[in-house]
Amino acid sequence: MLNLKQYRQFLTKNERNKIYLRKNGSEGRSTADSKYKTKRILGKAGVGVPGLIARFRKPEEVESYGWEKLEGNYVIKPVSGYGGEGIVIVRKKINDEKYQLMDGKVIRVRDLKMHCQEILAGRYSLYGLRDSVLVEERIKIHPIFLAFTKTGTPDVRVIVYNRVPVMAMLRIPTEKSKGKANLQQGAIGLGVDLATGITTFGVVGKGEVIKRIYDSRKKKMRKVNGIKIPFWTEILETAIRTQEIISGLGFVGVDIVLDKEVGPLVLEVNARPGLSIQICNKAGLKARMEKVEDIEVKSRGHAINLAKYLFGEGFFEKLEQKEKGRTVEPIEV
């Protein structure tokens, strides 16, 4: 339960919409709202993004595409979708007419085509307008995450304001979320200490607090705190670079996945990031953003140091005090 002081540090939806979304110009929002524009601009600037297999803009392009050549491990998504809606994650090919999805469901090629046609018609579009379809390579999941999910690829959302990372969470897909790292659909969200990249607290779905998560390596439940995310400084730098490259975004959520071979890749950019990240961090975005609003950030290194210094929780120091000297070691690969 939050006390009054803590509550006042939290950013409400009205405050986000009236104050902070105004920091995002129309050009930046337009880019963020299009996964294709985001991918093209970031890729051109040298930021890692998932590989593009195909893009469909017309119904006939869907019908004429050689689906049989795809062996699996790909993702179908609307260019202008939101909240994880309309995304289909394909695990493997069964034969030329059938594929298996991440949730184990078997789907026919004709059903995939129909889904693409629905995307083109605007069913999953942010504004309900006609859309286009992306078919992307599915990320090769980093080994550290294999213990916590078998249904999809976890990602790290980093909120960046005035070039400074102010909050982050690790999002883990579940069976309920059907392989998608989206809390609104039932994924798990773990708060992350910005200084260390180590998880702290957890929620599932729209805000149910959890203290434990299943570890398939040890075949038992374990505490949600203590998972060390690899490439942490690189993740923060990637999030900062993304805000710098996409002009006109002052307040942004950057979703980053970790490929086991190439490291951090930007999956998506959100110009209207959700607020549940505050719950799994037990901290308020408003208070953190107010701290950095007027700071002149001199470089990415400066921004990273600010984030680690201002928002590093010293979580394990607190645990050591609580446990009277017992040390809790973070899990690493």
From TrEMBL:
GO molecular function: ATP binding; metal ion binding; ribosomal S6-glutamic acid ligase activity
ATP-grasp domain location: 39-296
Keywords for this protein: ATP-binding, Nucleotide-binding
Alphabetical list of PROSITE patterns matching this protein: ATP_GRASP (PS50975)
Record Pfam families: ATPgrasp_ST (PF14397)
Cellular component, GO annotation: cytoplasm
Name used for this protein in its record: ATP-grasp domain-containing protein
Species of origin: Candidatus Shapirobacteria bacterium RBG_13_44_7
Lineage: Bacteria, Candidatus Shapironibacteriota
